[in-house]
Amino acid sequence: MNTSSLRIPLALESARIIEWRGRLYALAIFLAVFAIVSLGASQADGGGSLGRQLQWLLLTGGAIWHLLQTDRLKEPLALGWAIWVGALVLLYIAISASWSVVPGTTFKRAMLLWIIVAMCMACFGQQRREPVDFLHWHYWPVGILLVSSLLVALAWPAYGVTGIGWRGVASHKNELGQLATLGVLIYATLAISGKLRLGLGLMLLAMLVLVKSQSSSCTMALAAALAVGGIGLLLALASRSATSQPLLLGCGLFTLAVLFGLYVIGLIPDLQGMIDFVFGLLGKSSTLTGRTELWALVLENMQFQNPWLGGGYGGFWNGPDSIAGYIGYRFGGGYVGQAHNGYIDLYNDLGWTGIGLLVLFLLTWLQRIFAARRTAGSEFYFHLMFFVFMAVLDITESAYWRTTQMLNIVLIASFVRCNTLAVAAARKKPS
After folding, report:
1. Closest CA to 101 of 416, 345, 405, 313
2. Strand, coil or helix: what is 397?
3. How far apart are CA 185 and CA 109, in angstroms?
């Protein structure tokens, strides 16, 4: 029998399975944002209802089923120490139900987070012979959501436009801002990969939606991410040419010298002055629209629980009638559903142990990003920029480990994907 004649159908079958897993992931991104008919998870409840849990379980079950159809001996899951770091985080989150003030809610949300991790592992954790375009499965859902939000805001302003900014098809204007920011990063990477016109055109669409959402937090985090990505791209270009290295270094030193001189003669304000200036441009105060007051109120709760363990994963923000109800009475913005600071929320839920695990997780993720650089191509810049974006955004928003929220899904997918690429890169190193 001619075995070569069997290879083409087998390759096509493998590609079909991969494509279906990608489609399920893209559908997950869509459902995490789309809120007009309550298909996805809103910013407040974290996707905790039974119906939504079943929805995510079906998506994950489909991805795992397609994974099981592949040859896992020739294309095994990429495990290694980074995955064990993630497993340690998940284990601690699940165990926190034993001391949570609402153990049932904590356990339910922990299981939902495990489901999301399983889906991302099934979609992007396998070492495949055929290359997988990670970014491709973000282009379409993000683009469809951006265009839909634009149309809803224009045709149905009663829903799509609020007094504080556009929300489009999302449940809140900050969620639309996060979607738009993800779009900018995704399509900037598309432009870097060589599809310049298409990438820049879609970037402009995403930037328009970001501006209309009036999300200052996303705007600041995006600026930091693009700055780091731009510096990384310049360094990469300089490393390819010996003559450009001293030129780039000279320009950098000259710029620093000019900035220092302007600071000395008083033309550049001090740190507090720059903070006030930036917030003024964004139409905000240096108190971050009352966030500093909110942070103090949330931290008050820590005096009633173990500072090393916290109150249990997802055990605080559970509606106005929960233990977080006092926030609604004492904070001018009422009950807001989160501390608008991911680090404070994690400290409140998981204590100093949780913060330590977050630091370990972030350092592992960053190491995997750079370890994957040899095999990631232009995709490396997306993961690097997204890492910076999340680190900055969580100063004013809560996004880390927030169950079925879009940014958390992309975060977990990026972590798994970078680990898979890093394992592949390590195997390609010459002995």
Report:
1. 313
2. coil
3. 29
pTM of this prediction exceeds 0.70: yes
Task: Name which of 72, 84, 5, 118 is nearest 364 in CA terms.
Answer: 84
Give the span between the Cα atoms of 228 and 328, in whole angstroms.
38
**DSSP-derived 3-state class of residue 392:** helix
Distance between CA 369 and CA 377 in Å, rounded?
A: 11
Residue-wise DSSP of 278-310: HHHHTT--TTTTTHHHHHHHHHHGGGGS-TTTT
Q: Is the alpha carbon torsion for 233, 422, 182, 151 positive or negative?
A: positive
Query: Average pLDDT, stretch 223-228?
Result: 92
Which residues, in sequence order, are CB contacts of 367 under 8 Å at separation 6+? 82
What three-state secondary structure class fits 126?
Answer: strand
The amino acid sitting at 78 is: A
DSSP state of 267: S
pLDDT tens string 204-214: 999 999 999 99
Token pair in block for residue 39: 């298909």
Burial class (CB in 10 A: 0-12, 13-18, 19+), 255: exposed
Nearby residues of 214 by Cβ (< 8 Å), 6 or more positions away: 164, 165, 166, 173, 177, 283
Per-residue pLDDT tens over the stretch 125-179: 988 765 568 999 999 999 999 999 999 999 999 999 999 999 999 999 999 999 9
CA-closest candidate to residue 409, choices 401, 397, 417: 401
Residues 6+ apart with CB under 8 A from 25: 63, 119, 120, 123, 124, 137, 413
| 201 contacts 394 by C-beta, under 8 angstroms | no
